[in-house]
Amino acid sequence: MTIANNIAAFREAKGWARPELAKRMGTTPQQVERLEKGQRGLSSEWIEKAARALSVTVGDIITPGAANGAPAHHVEPDRLPTRNASAEDGTVDIISLDLSVSMGPGTLIEDMIEEEPVKWDIGHLRILTRSPFHQLRQIRGIGDSMEPTLRTGDRVLIDTAERTLNRIHGIYWIDHFGAHGLKRLRAAGHGRILIASENKVAGGPDFEVDADDLRIHGRAIWFGREL
């Protein structure tokens, strides 16, 4: 997947030619050109290098909502994005959703409202995932069907880059006919997925569904719990 980006816009706003940015990123002008034009995949490593070199946030590098080769929106020099996180202080902003996802029978959700971004340590995130930071979301779980692994009120980090069942017994944020939940998933034969709870008393028995009827929003990769 090619990710549209604002590297060229920030470079031009600083009055730099490509060789100057290349020197600051530790690469070649030809590589910078390929990154700017989307001719090379923009990995999280390249995003972080560009952000440090341009003194902007990691999130500023990515054009909101742009992916799959969509053209980046040009950023005017006098309207550069506000700097609200920086690789210089070792943090990045992760969007926290005003959303409580059921760990029981499922929560009907019509709208997901974004809260203020939550600062995360870049080093910690890189231990958890290599996915781009803009694809991570923080949500909160409710219910007791996933105990003892997850408890009600736990803050859960979701990697939305993982929208297919690619981990054996992984815990995923799912949507089954509009009911959202955090559940453990397992392949159950051709075109079938097993949805399981940790707490069989609270969550009920495991059950199979057609893969086409299940939407995976991402995989849970971390959780935090208040003492």
From TrEMBL:
The UniProt record lists the keyword Hydrolase: yes
One cellular component term from this protein's GO annotations in UniProt: membrane
UniProt keyword terms in alphabetical order: DNA-binding, Hydrolase, Protease, Transcription, Transcription regulation
Entry protein name: HTH cro/C1-type domain-containing protein
This protein's record includes keyword Hydrolase: yes
Highest taxon, organism lineage: Bacteria
Gene Ontology biological-process annotations: proteolysis
GO molecular function, one term: serine-type endopeptidase activity
Classification via InterPro entries: Cro/C1-type_HTH, Lambda_DNA-bd_dom_sf, LexA-like, LexA/Signal_pep-like_sf, Pept_S26A_signal_pept_1_Ser-AS, Peptidase_S24_S26A/B/C
Ranges of residues in domain HTH cro/C1-type: 7-61
